[in-house]
Write a structure and sequence with these properties.
Number of strands of chain A: 13
Structural class of chain A: alpha/beta
Distance between the termini of chain A: 49 Å
Radius of gyration of chain B: 20 Å
Shape of chain A: globular
Largest interface: A-C, 65 and 54 residues
CATH topology of the largest domain in chain B: Alpha-Beta Plaits
Distance between the termini of chain B: 60 Å
Strand order of the largest sheet of chain A: 8-7-13-10-11
Radius of gyration of chain A: 22 Å
CATH topology of the largest domain in chain A: Rossmann fold
Largest sheet of chain B: 5 strands, mixed
Bound molecules: flavin mononucleotide, iron/sulfur cluster, FE2/S2 (inorganic) cluster
Chains: A alpha/beta (about 450), B alpha+beta (about 325), C alpha+beta (about 180)
Oligomer: heterotrimer
CATH class of the largest domain in chain A: Alpha Beta
Chain lengths: ~450, ~325, ~180
């Protein structure tokens, strides 16, 4: 039976209100921590849990917290990354809309452990209505004495504020997010220094994803050791997966890490299989930045073993035959999907979202989009395909922030696994032109 | 005093103060192993990290932790560690990546070197000459911008801009009010005042000297001559606002233009005021100290430029649209 | 007629909100409120940010106008030109394309007689194509005003065009379509 930690009470009517949340055991973790545990004890539990960042990179959360400069005389900050903009990813939105208090509780616990007295939630600008949901939950928690001054007599003070972005994927990158929170353009910072030493207002700062911070609540309730028993190997615990594309049941699911991909894709508890009469062609398993895999390589690794939904199993085989769990944005595509078209729309996304600070990403993303656009509409040449691989290779690893890599990987992977489709667009250019006529878009890039 | 750190770059070893960046350590050694820098400017706080031309390979992180760094790093913004070993020209990976960066910088750069005021002293031209590929593979349309007017002293050609941010840092740090900045984002980012606004301020002219390309040029530059016909002379005057130490570009007795004095990395030794730069165009305004040696490793000093431009520049320096 | 900064004055309520927002950040870091205050300005003064309106925001936060222009032009949600009260912001990223958003955009363009990035002559409708909105499981979708309208069909588009064209349409309200 699947474990539900974050979504346990998701269908209880009124769970978004303080009273109902509290009646289901809410804020017990805060009581436990503030009355019986030291800030370091809380961090110890997080370390023991083996929790890894749910924003995409999968970095161990406890270790990240231990890097925070606690000797500095400056205030320390916790910032919650609710920028969620990676195509295919909509889990944080679901959690915040449906169960905001579990996030607020996790924020109180984490702020206590890290010593943050002002904690900011940076939420993407488009989630306008969720700002209200979060602010209401914050007001309720404050009313109940879980926020404000001297919480539960512990001497710990905390305010949580919600700050909205305004349409920029790059602000999910933690240093761009910090810049944006300071009221600036979302240009990622040049590292070092890292935020743990000098982040928000040049003070020591930890940035964590919504799901990561919400998960601290069950970890404190059940204990880090218990949490670590869930999942598989170094992929401990549960993970929210947002599933979309050509499946019968798109939505957000909480899975035990290590669930077989076959079960996730085909069981009625989760995706419910590919839509009727069609078959799986390819999968982007962890948000648009991770390499696309053809169905066979997604279901089984190169050695023929069934894959699992875990950090390790999905990345088995490296980029040659594997992919990544990433943010948990699961995109399934059936045989009707044109990989060239899909790759072009993703390239357009990264082109649109590049901050423009460093030359390889600023120039390379636009170049790739233009070449893919030509290929997609039947104006490409054979040499364009290798050119794309080269451009991607020249961006990857040479940029200020990982957006460059994120833009390069999907293009390189699509050509790696589906080169024949790109070639088809060249060899059957007139056929492609005809079929695309209706879709020759004037909405190539969306700018103001 | 704290201890010095040992660092080896392309086989040459030196000792530098902790906190020094790889690029500055390389500049202390000097010579051809110094990575090219298009955005870093030692006199501007916060500059660097953006153009990526200064990428180097760190083949040994430090004495204590000898592991190599997994990715190439920007030498202008990476501090050295004791016992670090760095490869610049000796790393094929670096040369390959730099060639890529140069290609990226050129794909949207106009092909107007023959009419550009900066020709002959343009860092991008030098860079492409030394590190570029033979021909461009860019077949798409080049980026265009609406022309904007930023006053009667400074000319902005946005299409030539490589977004190094130097002029923005200059306006922030040297002048008392910044009215221009970077608008929009990605490859639509541009230098602009957004509304019609004049960049005019006692020290605003310095943005011309920090600009590595011909995006910001001197509108008062008389006769618009190619720079290699005029002779750079060190000159000075008594100026109440700045040191008054400049370079006067002369042809016979005519002052074509005034700039600051640049060191061998193309950086100004001192900021000069607009009065000196724009308002003193008579030879009698200046005391001429003698010829200014061009130290910068550039196409003019290598004497390649004049030869190149007439016959084969576009192909040879690599931005010709060969189609 | 040319606008000036002095033409703009937030309502009492909004001014209080701005004051409160400034206290959320440490002393001297009031610039942190810039993004939220720009949203408020755009919402209160007709859906777009003119230069004088941005100058007004600069004066409220004690920063220079250029700092505001740089920021406003960076983020895609700020409109630097007037837009219709009913602005379709269709997500055009991969997952939405898998579910037919392109056809729907074309349908909407056809119905309104405008293209993406254009506004109808009566100033009522604008169409934009934007990038992933975190609604990939309910594609195709469009944001109109504050809310998302998901699992869109041609029929739903017809209804939206009809209802949101009425004079009493309020973009900050959720409509069930
Ligand atoms: C271009 C880019 C976009 C990102 N977007 C997000 C995002 O929307 N949400 C998020 O939580 N992390 C995002 N990240 C990852 C963050 O930089 C950071 O690693 C994360 O917030 C750390 O939290 P975690 O350790 O809890 O995952 C992004 C990274 C990059 C490079
Ligand atoms: S990689 Fe792209 S998004 Fe990241 S800093 Fe460079 S230009 Fe900006
Ligand atoms: S105008 Fe010149 S100095 Fe300013 S950003 Fe562009 S290239 Fe750099
Ligand atoms: S000089 Fe180092 S990145 Fe530009
Ligand atoms: S791709 Fe359209 S909402 Fe995510």
């Amino acid at each position: 039976m699947a474990t539900k930690l974050l979504l346990e009470h998701i269908n209880v009517p009124g769970i978004e209100t303080y009273d109902v949340y509290r009646s289901k055991g809410g804020y017990r973790a805060v009581e436990k921590a503030l009355k019986t545990m030291s800030p370091d004890d809380v961090m110890e539990e997080v370390k023991k849990s083996g929790l890894r960042g749910r924003g995409g990179a999968g970095f161990p959360t406890g270790m990240k917290w231990s890097f925070l400069d606690r000797k500095s005389s400056n205030p320390r900050y916790l910032v919650c990354n609710a920028d969620e903009s990676e195509p295919g990813t909509f889990k944080d939105r679901y959690l915040m809309e449906k169960n905001p208090h579990i996030l607020i509780e996790g924020l109180i616990l984490s702020s206590y452990s890290l010593g943050s007295n002002s904690t900011y939630i940076y939420i993407r600008g488009e989630y306008k209505w969720i700002v209200g949901i979060l602010e209401k939950a914050i007001a309720e928690a404050k009313n109940a004495g879980f926020l404000g001054k001297n919480i539960l007599g512990s001497g710990f003070n905390l305010e949580i504020y919600v700050n909205n972005g305004a349409g920029a994927y790059i602000c999910g990158e933690e240093t761009a997010l910090i810049e944006s929170l300071e009221g600036k353009r979302g240009n990622p910072r040049i590292k070092p220094p890292f935020p743990a030493i000098s982040g928000l207002y040049n003070c020591p700062t930890v940035v964590n994803n919504v799901e990561t911070l919400a998960t601290v609540t069950p970890i404190i309730n059940m204990g880090g050791d218990e949490y670590a028993k869930l999942g598989i190997g170094k992929s401990t615990g549960t993970k929210l997966i947002s599933a979309c594309g050509h499946i019968n049941r798109p939505g957000v699911y909480e899975i035990d890490l290590g669930l077989p991909v076959d079960e996730f894709l085909n069981s009625d508890e989760y995706c419910g299989g590919i839509r009727k009469g069609h078959e799986l062609k390819a999968v982007i398993a962890g948000g648009s930045s991770v390499p696309i895999l053809p169905a066979e390589l997604f279901m089984k690794n190169a050695a023929g073993e069934a894959r699992l939904m875990s950090y390790e199993s999905l990345s088995d085989g490296g980029f040659a035959t594997g992919t990544m769990l990433g943010s948990g944005g699961f995109i399934a595509m059936d045989e009707t999907t044109c990989i060239v078209h899909n790759t072009w729309t993703l390239a357009r996304f990264y082109h649109h979202e590049s901050c423009g600070q460093c030359s390889p990403c600023r120039e390379g993303t636009g170049w790739m989009e233009k070449v893919l656009h030509r290929l997609e509409f039947g104006h490409g040449h054979m040499h364009d395909i290798d050119l794309l691989v080269e451009i991607a290779g020249k961006i990857e690893g040479n940029t200020i922030c990982p957006l460059g890599d994120a833009a390069a990987w999907p293009v390189a992977a699509a050509i790696r696994h589906f080169r024949d489709e790109f070639e088809y667009h060249v060899t059957h250019a007139s056929k492609v032109k005809d079929s695309r006529k209706a879709h020759l878009p004037n909405y190539k890039t969306a700018t103001v | 005093m704290s201890q010095l750190f040992k660092i080896t770059i392309d086989g040459e070893t030196t000792e530098v103060a902790p906190g020094t960046t790889i690029l500055n350590a390389a500049r202390q050694i000097g010579g051809s192993l110094v990575p090219p820098a298009m955005c870093y400017y030692s006199k501007l706080k916060g500059s660097g990290g953006k153009c990526r031309t200064c990428l180097v390979e760190v083949s040994q992180g430090s004495e204590k932790d000898p592991r190599p760094m997994p990715k190439l790093v920007a030498s202008c913004s990476t501090p050295i560690m004791d016992g670090m070993v760095v490869k610049n020209l000796t790393s094929p990976k670096v040369l390959e990546a730099r060639k890529g960066v140069v290609e990226f910088l050129l794909i949207n750069h106009p092909l107007d070197c023959p009419v550009c005021d900066q020709a002959g002293e343009c860092h991008l031209q030098d860079l492409s000459y030394e590190h570029g590929a033979a021909r461009s593979r860019y077949e798409e349309e080049r980026r265009k911008f609406d022309r904007i007017d930023i006053g009667d002293k400074i000319q902005l050609h946005m299409t030539r801009c490589i977004l190094c941010y130097r002029c923005v840092f200059t306006a922030d740090q040297i002048t008392d009010k910044r009215v221009h900045g970077i608008m929009f984002r990605g490859d639509k980012a541009e230098i602009s005042t957004y509304i019609e606004n004049v960049i005019d301020n006692d020290f605003s002219g310095n943005v011309i000297d920090v600009c590595p390309v011909g995006a910001l040029t001197d509108k008062t530059f008389r006769f618009k001559s190619r720079v290699w016909f005029v002779k750079p002379m060190e000159a000075h005057r008594d100026c109440p606002k700045c040191s008054g130490k400049t370079v006067a570009w002369l042809s016979g007795d005519e002052v074509y233009r005034i700039t600051g004095r640049k060191d061998k990395y193309g950086e100004l030794e001192e900021w000069i005021c607009n009065d000196c730069r724009f308002e003193h165009k008579k030879i009698s305004d200046w005391v001429i100290d003698g010829p200014r040696a061009i130290e910068r490793h550039s196409v003019i000093s290598l004497n390649k430029y004049e030869k190149g431009i007439k016959v084969e520049t576009p192909k040879k320096i690599g931005y010709g649209n060969t189609r | 007629m040319e606008q000036t900064q002095h033409q703009f004055q937030f309502s009492e309520k909004s001014l209080k909100k701005v004051q409160e927002m400034k206290t959320r950040y440490p002393e001297g870091k009031q610039k942190s409120a810039l993004l939220p205050v720009l949203h408020m300005a755009q919402d209160e003064f007709g859906g777009w940010l003119s230069a004088p309106l941005m100058d007004y925001v600069a004066s409220l936060l004690d920063i220079t106008p250029i700092e505001v222009y740089e920021v406003a032009s960076f983020y895609s949600m700020y409109n630097l030109k007037p837009v219709g009260k009913c602005m379709f912001e269709f997500c055009q990223t991969g997952p939405c394309c898998l579910n037919g958003v392109e056809e729907l955009i074309e349908y909407t363009e056809g119905k309104l007689g405008i293209k993406v990035n254009q506004t109808t002559a009566d100033g009522k409708y604008t169409i934009k194509a934007v990038e992933c909105m975190g609604s990939c499981g309910s594609a195709p979708m469009a944001q109109i005003g504050t809310y998302y309208y998901e699992n869109l069909t041609k029929e739903k588009i017809d209804k939206i065009i009809e209802v949101f064209g009425q004079p009493d349409f309020d973009p900050f309200k959720k409509y069930s379509i």
